[in-house]
């Protein structure tokens, strides 16, 4: 007998509905699985056999053929186990086929018939709903995540028995309801009020948050670079609905979505400098999202930038430029979104004291070797460069509380608002994403500002590449100041944040 | 005569033939062309006192010497040999104990009778760097030629200061002129040559900047200059060797006093104790030169500082001369907000009243003599 049941798999960030077709015919008992199944899907045969038997149902001792359609799509998930088991039960007549109409089954089976959660539920249910599915069966742990898609009836189930009993009508289940839990709150356990002094660095981070600019902080060890970076998410504007859904999808696919709630906090990723190229941009025979994708719409913090292997840093260039990474492997070529604010921190020299402290013990060539580990093209994509000094003692002990993150965030929000209004026709959301064309069309400089820019180019020997960067940053500074045009002081401040990597 | 210079340059280019052996050859053979054309036999070897092994090596080098390649390389690098007997050989140099017979020169050679050497540490403090550049600029504006070694630190800033006021400056290198040491100064040396200065060396093409070349090079720096200024130097340093060499030749030595706590001023303070002339402004040098009968133009040493607005003046007053002040310190001193202070600092930089260093901002001593 033939049956068709629907499961789902993910490829990249997209869900795909998979039709699981089973046929039972007379012949020697066998179990054939076709349709470009990966090893984890092939192993499902053993899990399904045991789970069906241990749930008190009969596993057909006849010739059993299973096809996973579309047959040209590589399936690499254990989440097809449940649909496979249901398909066998349907085709062997133990469950009526009508009951499974417009149902989506997702879950991994244990040998005793228990159902385990799987990754990537959100993109799969979204795709299922788009394909006209009405009901979805998932592990109880995945139910909350599946409920993020409002168009589906979600059943959170524990065992294969429960699924079968529900489908045969023996024991109907209650549909899962969204918990009255408020979505992920925007509460951070850190705040800029805890950072004393560091006025320049704070100002730079405010500009970065307001315009989405990348930042490089240079300073001696213990000057508070990491402390500052950790607080950047607290001043970023909250994510829009669409952004939140996109980020949640990424985390769902990566298996990092803990509570199955829509993410509200912007991601903050801080990979260690021993990270591999594949770990940073994504990789694997079927590429998985890397750190740049996990920090999409958020912050990617690279501490000790020169310690990262140069080859790893170079692959950052494409995501920084295009906001997307294309990864091509033999099995699949995928694109992952990766629009993040890069925040990098480094010491000025190997010993960390050059320029900040007497007694730097590094030779000129050591310092040069250290700073040259970061290539020019990468530095060119960093709009804001700032030196972070060790705070003075009186700053550390000051009674006056520094400005809280909420105050900074309200300024950032109003600056973002101005940008969105101005840039909406061009499809950008913030100043950092402007291209040359958008800059020419939207950025207006006063006569004095233009003259300063001209003079600064000669006096400070600025490169042509830095021209656009300076205008973008000065536009953000003008937005923060609520000025419609870029004034001289805005340009001057932006020039002060240019690349200061002194080559001794 | 030019013929003789070429022969001397060719002899100098033979591997193993330094200034001293070249001199020995010339003492015996009277002229470079005769030395080149002589029969290099055992008799000549004994009279010049060159060891047999080196002598045979020199003879072999001479026998295979390729004049075409030699000429081509000279013109490729824009190098012209200048010998002791030529008119544009530096006027002070012949009087030292061992003057180089041939100098390989890029750029314009002059007699440079009013020249001054500015030397100092490669790892100098912001104070020394600032002073070296200002001093060189003011002395160059007086028409003095600034001679230095082209090394990192004080030397580089001295050359740069001279160029700033369009003065003449000479780099004395410790390697063949087909290479540049330190490499990052390539652009600076080209600028020196383009602006009517010179890069010179007694070493032929292919000679690396070996450590043993530097003391020999320092004798040329001290020897070319009527007086030597040591800006900053540690106790055991090449700059003190240069000062000693200058004293040996009877030239004046100026030393710039520094903090008694500063490691980089130990050497200069030591020189002062020994009787060097204390240098506190460019006028100190000019006065000394005039006392010796130098007829320079009667212009004021220092340039008028740029005109500053009251806000800029308030900020510049908060910036120290002798170290880099971090932004946080300037914010504290001026009471300004970051967004207000940074544009002023940029304006000061563009007016060349202040400069940004890795650790913050330092005030440029636009009027060193007025201190």
Could you explain how this protein is built, in words?
Chain A has 504 residues and is α/β, with parallel strands linked by helices. Chain A has 21 helices and 18 strands. Chain A has a five-stranded parallel beta sheet with strand order 11-14-17-10-18. A four-stranded mixed beta sheet of chain A has the order 1-2-4-3. In chain A, helix 19 (447-459) runs parallel beside helix 21 and helix 20 (464-480) crosses helix 21. The longest helix of chain A is centred in the last third of the chain and has 19 residues, at 405-423. Chain B is α/β, with parallel strands linked by helices and 371 residues long. In chain B, 45% of the residues lie in helices and 12% in strands. Chain B has helices at 2-13, 19-29, 32-37, 42-48, 52-63, 67-76, 126-141, 154-164, 186-194, 213-224, 238-248, 266-274, 282-291, 310-318, 327-334, 338-350, and strands at residues 79-83, 102-107, 115-119, 145-148, 169-172, 198-201, 227-230, 252-255, 277-278, 354-357, 360-363. The longest helix of chain B is centred in the middle third of the chain and has 16 residues, at 126-141. Chain A binds chain B through residues 197-200, 203, 348, 354-357, 364, 387, 389, 391-392, 395, 455-456, 459-460, 477, 481, 488-489, 492-493, 495-497, 500, 502-504, and chain B through 122, 152, 184, 324, 326-329, 331, 337-340, 342-343, 345-347, 349-350, 356-360.
Q: Strands across the major sheet of chain A, in which order? A: 11-14-17-10-18
Count of discrete alpha- or pi-helical segments spanning 4 or more residues of chain A: 21
Shape of chain B: elongated
CATH architectural type of the largest domain in chain B: 3-Layer(aba) Sandwich
What's the topology here?
The complex is a heterodimer of chains A (504) and B (371).
Chain A: E1 2-11, E2 14-25, E3 30-34, H1 39-42, H2 44-54, E4 63-69, H3 81-91, E5 103-105, E6 108-109, E7 115-116, H4 121-130, E8 135-139, H5 143-146, E9 153-157, H6 160-168, H7 199-211, E10 215-218, H8 225-230, H9 241-254, E11 268-269, H10 277-281, E12 282-283, E13 288-289, H11 291-294, E14 299-302, H12 310-314, H13 317-322, E15 324-328, E16 333-337, E17 341-346, H14 364-371, H15 376-380, E18 384-387, H16 393-396, H17 405-423, H18 436-442, H19 447-459, H20 464-480, H21 488-496
Parallel strand pairs in A: 3-4, 5-8, 8-9, 10-17, 10-18, 11-14, 14-17
Antiparallel strand pairs in A: 1-2, 2-4, 6-7, 12-13, 15-16
Helix pairs in contact in A: 2-3, 7-17, 7-20, 19-21, 20-21
Chain B: H1 2-13, H2 19-29, H3 32-37, H4 42-48, H5 52-63, H6 67-76, E1 79-83, E2 102-107, E3 115-119, H7 126-141, E4 145-148, H8 154-164, E5 169-172, H9 186-194, E6 198-201, H10 213-224, E7 227-230, H11 238-248, E8 252-255, H12 266-274, E9 277-278, H13 282-291, H14 310-318, H15 327-334, H16 338-350, E10 354-357, E11 360-363
Helix pairs in contact in B: 7-8, 10-11, 14-16
